[in-house]
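Self-study notes.
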Amino acid sequence: MALWAHGGFLLCVALATFAQNTTGFAFGLLLLGLTGLLQLAPVETVANVSSVLTLINAFVLLRNRPQLAPRLMALILVCSLAGVGVGVELLGLLGTHERDLLQLLLGVTIVVCSLLLVVRSRPLAQLSGGLGFSCFAGLSGVMGGLFSSAGPPLVYQLYRQPLATQVVRDTLIVVFAVNALLRLTLMACTQRFDLQAGYLALEALPVVFGLTWYMRRHPPAIAPKALRLGVFALLLLAGASLMVQAINSV
């Protein structure tokens, strides 16, 4: 990568970190979308970077014992980990033979997930059934395996439930960390974790931690609705652009 590309990558990391701290789930999607839009690095490499940062960030956030619902956690983990395996296998197939299709799929995913930011869901009176959690967790795992961006489906499902906010937060952090660990293990075992991903993750760490530390102490003086709309616009632009690029290259 040229020097300007490293600067562009760090700018994308900063924007993705800002989005993560304001929405709770947009880091991986926005990082993939922006770097893909600017053609800074391959999708597979950036997804590996996102997995590393997710895992390290979880260790930092979970310094105390997490608050979890054990049975629900077990169900979510089983289904999401199975989904990660499917997603990694799909990534191997699409990354080798159909890179344009992979980019198109990423673009569609980003556009759909951007809509979740502006769609308000009603809280549920009672906990959803096991089938519902299994479906959302499995889909989340597939997205995690493909793009290291497992957040949107599970975030949408859990925040609708009659659960304590701390339980939801800690559950999401643990699930995403375990998913990231499995994904990294599978990628390493199949020799698809390249050195460039390791170097880029090291570059990104100071930006992620520094910006997160600053934003916790100095929250942006912007209305939450305006922040969500801004992140929505960034995701929509990145996703739509990736789709156009993929279609034009066919």
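Second protein, same conventions, sequence then structure:
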Amino acid sequence: MPPAALTPVDVPGTTPMSAAAVDLAAAGYTEREFYAEGTANRYAGAVPTSLETARVIDRGWPYRTRVIVRAPDARQFNGSLVVEWANVTLGLDGEFVFNEAHEHLLREGYAVAVVSAQRAGVERLKTWSPERYGDLSVDVNACGASGTDLCTDDPLSFDILAQVSKALKDNRGHGRPLPGLHVDNVIATGQSQSASRLTTYYNTIEPLHGFFDGFVYWDRSGQLRPDLAVPAISVNSEAFAQARGPVTTAKYTRAWDVAGTTHASLYGARYIDDVVLRDQSIVGPQGPISFTQLIELSCEVLPAFSTVDSGLVINSAIESVRRWATRGQPAAPSISFDRDADGNLVRDADGDVQGGVRLAQFTAPTAFQVANNGTTFPCSVSGHHLDFTDDELVAMYGTHDNYVKLVRDTMREARMSGYVLEVDEKEAVRAARASDVAR
């Protein structure tokens, strides 16, 4: 597999779309954008239902896209590069893993890249800034007359992701993308729509490329083939659980269901809001709107999103895959929601789902919350929350110390079971102690 050719983007008077919405410099990071070009293969059998290795149809299809690269100082680099397949469900590139897990990634010294692998994202780049992105293309009529059985949507996307990732790992050429860094391992990640594409990659293309060292899926992978010795963890929300059902895992694959979580957490949604409002990249009926406003157009109850922080479990999944790939240390076992004989989620008398990873925001909530909201996507999987009043919190917990103890006990259990990191456990307990809950 050849690497893509990377060229630093330098178009005066323009800025990158979807640049980070956090102070990267304060974390010791730089952010640069590169054009990435090369030629890709088309594959037969690279379809979501297949657990068999694909085969090459033909070669030489040109592409030109972009990748955003966030690099730490060499002294803090941990040797791992996380490459996110940008999600294009909204009609533009979305970084749904980075927005949930960015604090952890920056704290631990990961290099991070976000690849525009699909046509919808690239075409939005071109309309957003023709000067910067006007000559990008990831299709060039690649479907041709081959027929739908041999040419699924975005047929070049699998090679695009892998070739760009290989160029970053090689770290050579003009404008070296990761100056002063030596990449030891590469972890691919994606959420929802891009997680589905990445599932197809794992099952059908990774056996051909043999490139990535691990995979992390956020909501969610489909069935992963059991015969690959490549670590993969899928972190799954309650919001999608009933519709998609459980998957079978094997020696190198895990599925972690997280109780009370929605397709994006409240905290992840706020990060996306900062990005799209700055870029004015989502347009509503009367002009630019936030991600939250877009979601709430289809809600039955407001406000949307759960306060259960799925990013805490994503953090642990990233660390677990890294340890698995570099030290051979397997991740914590799969953990699923309880289901009855008909496959329906089992709930207690209060409606809380049983089983799965249980975080303190679920077992010791400060807000009423549900994982689903009506039947219209995307709010159907975006849930609802409503903060409890002070009187309600006192009635629930009695004393502040009782609340802190419940948070501490829950997070200790999650950490000892391998689904939460120690640093996140300590921060949750610190925040509980500093709160005004039941004082």
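Instructor comment on the second fold: Confidence is low (pLDDT under 50) at residues 145-151.
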